[in-house]
């Protein structure tokens, strides 16, 4: 799993949305672990914490950052 920074953040979110310090991560594999995601996101500036949930057999995560806009432009591959 890797983070790639995109040049144009306007392609990710409409500009009329206020910034949010929480990043929602979905489409994770069934074997993806919370520790694996913490290892990836802890290297990103402003990382605070990660909460992983299993919704109907599909794991999802919520990643919190300190500052607004730190995670804008990141896409999980």
UniProtKB/TrEMBL annotation:
Superkingdom field: Eukaryota
Residue ranges of domain RRM in the record: 23-66
Molecular-function annotations in GO: RNA binding
Coiled-coil regions, chain positions: none
A Pfam family hit: RRM_1
Name of the protein this chain belongs to: RRM domain-containing protein
Organism (species): Panicum hallii var. hallii
């Amino acid at each position: 799993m890797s983070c790639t920074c995109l040049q144009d953040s306007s392609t990710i979110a409409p500009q009329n949305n206020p910034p949010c310090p929480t990043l929602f991560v979905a489409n994770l594999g069934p074997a993806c672990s919370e520790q694996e995601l913490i290892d990836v996101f802890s290297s990103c500036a402003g990382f605070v914490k990660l909460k992983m949930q299993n919704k109907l057999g599909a794991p999802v995560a919520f990643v919190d950052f300190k500052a607004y806009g730190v995670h804008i432009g990141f896409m999980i591959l």
